[in-house]
Amino acid sequence: MKFWRRHKHEFSADETAEPLPVAPEKKMRYSREDDILLARYFFEKPEGTSDKIFQNFGRLFHQNGYLLVPGFLDTNETEALLGRAKQLLDEFSLDDHPLTKFTTSDKDHVGDDYFLNSADKIRYFLEEDAVDENGKLTRDKSKAVNKIGHALHELDPIFRKVTLENEKLRRLVRDLKFHREPVALQSMVITKQTHIGGQVPEHNDSTFLYTDPPSALGFWIALEKCTPANGALSFLPGSHLTSPITKRFVRLPEGGTGFEELIPPEVELPLHTGKYVLEACNPGDLVLIHGSVLPVPCIKSKVA
Questions:
Q1: pLDDT digits (tens, 9 = 90+) for 173-221
Q2: Residue 265: CA atoms inside 13 Å, Cβ hemisphere, count?
Q3: pLDDT band at 110 (very low <50, low <70, confident <90, very high)
Q4: How far, in Å, CA of 92 to CA of 95, rounded?
Q5: For residue 179, is the peptide bond before it cis, meaning its omega torsion is within 30 degrees of 0?
Q6: Phi, psi (rounded to 5 degrees) for 143
Q7: Is 282 helix (H, G, I), strand (E, B) or coil?
Q8: What is the pLDDT of residue 81?
Q9: What is the H or E stretch that residue 249 is in?
């Protein structure tokens, strides 16, 4: 493999080795840094991988904007996460909770202090219809929570073990070559309760985790089986290449949150073509999600 042959000396050379001849000048499709990154991958590659697997892996993600990785977590890891998520729901106390509801509409997106100051905490956000006009829950608390976030990967040992401390996950990020210096911004457990909650509209994650150019990358792990009848995700393949980010989620000067338009309303946007593809998942499967691709979740129950 040319990347390995070309740069093998950079990993195994010693001070007594003779210098290699200067490479002839030529027009290259890759930079020297790209070659070294690929050489490092194959130098450290896990047993059983191959050039073809790696190339198809990266090609599919960049072509479609998402990638299903079956069995990314084993049964023990998946059951540990699911068990811990259920334990967190059991431990959830309403005594000092502001009853913050997670809403997704443009006009009334969640934006109170409890939400905005949750980046370094583990907090609970309720479904839209989980609280009645008297401030009382309409169902058991374990069925009223929309999601738990946003610092599980930092603060909870079980979630940290399979995220920040997971060498397989770090290797996966390196293999994609999507970031040179990736940073984990947030993590959450999404419960997707049955018979409650607002419908999530067609959207892309880069609207909420905005950078220019777009760089958000989601790691979505199924903790329960996700089927067409049980909350599987659908994606519009290639939409990350054709769907511009039209707005971004911002804090408003007067408080709360809103959306800043990035493209004037009068500008005609390209029509979405193609068909959404539903990706059923088993517990432990991972779906990599480009921040600009268009996903649509089903509305029935799952935990992820």
A1: 877 877 778 889 999 999 887 777 656 667 789 999 999 988 999 999 9
A2: 1
A3: low
A4: 9
A5: no
A6: -105, 5
A7: coil
A8: 97
A9: strand 247-251
Please enumerate in sequence order all residues whose Cβ is within 8 A of that of 251, keeping only pairs 6 or more positions apart, or say none: 111, 116, 257
Write out the two tokens for 128.
């839209």
Residue with tokens 């609207």: 207
Over the range 81-106, which residues count as b (16 or more CB within 10 Å of their CB) and which as e? bbebbeebbeebeeeeeebbbbbbee
Q: Which residues lie below 8 Å from residue 87, measured CB to CB, with a gap of 6+?
A: none
Longest Cα pair distance anywhere in the chain, in angstroms? 80
What are residue 219's DSSP bridge partners?
Answer: 288
Q: Each residue of 23-58: pLDDT tens digit? A: 555 545 545 555 555 555 544 555 545 455 556 777
What's the order of all strands across the beta sheet hosting 277-279? 277-279, 233-236, 294-297
For residue 143, the 8-state DSSP code is: G
| Torsion on CA atoms 215, 55, 72, 152, rounded to nearest 10 | -20
Tokens (6 digits) for 90: 């059991």
The model's pTM: 0.77
User: Closest Cα partner for 178 from 65, 36, 295?
Assistant: 65
Secondary structure letter of residue 233 according to DSSP: E
Q: What is the pLDDT of residue 298?
A: 53
- C-alpha span between 304 and 302 (Å, rounded): 7
DSSP 8-state assignment for residue 76: H
Give the E-state strand segments of 130-201 in sequence order.
145-150, 187-190
At residue 125, what are phi and psi to the nearest 5 degrees?
-120, 130
CA distance 275 to 278: 10
What's the full length of the chain, in residues?
304
